[in-house]
């Protein structure tokens, strides 16, 4: 998501009670942040956060952390967040490369990747959030039976991921090239991008991976 930089967005984020500022100091102590031992699910590249805020409303027994690297994008999410009364969700303005410094081994039970930037040029493949390099980062923080769930409209990125994820030593346990017309659609929560692309008639791909 490319948004024009919004002046003052960093300051707004610094002031927000919904954003954890010193995330690396919480490594291994996220249960203290939430005040309970519920499982932690994260979304990497949450954009404006529709998906993760909807999940937090539906599942009070799960703790959610939404991660977005651009302050101007996260600010949009915070505007929506201020309308909700929730105690099971926090946001981080961080790059996914830092995840292993933010979460201890096994501290996260599920990672959602939704409509991640495709980085179509071969020389940028390492930046894709389903690259072998990123899967190695997720490997460091996920619990032994934890899962990565990935949705995209981009068939090139999806086909790449069907190869890169097993190459990183993971199993793809479920996948579909047309989520909304598949059994995997049950309980699906749409993201902002998913609503846009599916309204244009584009099929949505989804996979679930575990080690
Ligand atoms: N997940 C949302 C959705 O489905 O509507 C937003 C999708 S948008 C195409 C991808 C988002 O991921 C952008 O807001 C981008 O800034 C964020 N992003 C990309 N790479 C990231 C990274 N390495 N760390 C954190 N956020 C990242």
Mind explaining what this structure looks like?
The protein is globular, with a radius of gyration of 16 Å. It is 32% helix and 21% strand. The chain contains eight helices and seven strands, in the order H-H-E-H-E-H-E-H-E-H-E-H-E-H-E. The protein is of the alpha/beta class and 211 residues long. It has one domain (38-210): Vaccinia Virus protein VP39 (Rossmann fold). The longest helix has 13 residues, at 155-167. Strands 3-2-1-4-5-7-6 form a seven-stranded mixed sheet, sandwiched between helices.
Mean pLDDT: 96
- Identify the strand order in the major beta sheet: 3-2-1-4-5-7-6
Distance between the termini: 29 Å
Q: What CATH first level would be assigned?
A: Alpha Beta
Provide the domain count: 1
How large is the share of residues in beta strands? 15-25%
Structural class: alpha/beta
The level of helicity is 25-40%
Give the helices and strands as they follow along the chain. HHEHEHEHEHEHEHE
The oligomeric state is single chain
CATH superfamily: Vaccinia Virus protein VP39
CATH architecture: 3-Layer(aba) Sandwich
CATH topology: Rossmann fold
Main sheet specs: 7 strands, mixed
Give the helix tally: 8
In terms of per-residue confidence, which ranges show pLDDT below 50 for 5 or more consecutive residues?
none
Total E-strand runs: 7
Q: Radius of gyration, rounded?
A: 16 Å
Shape: globular
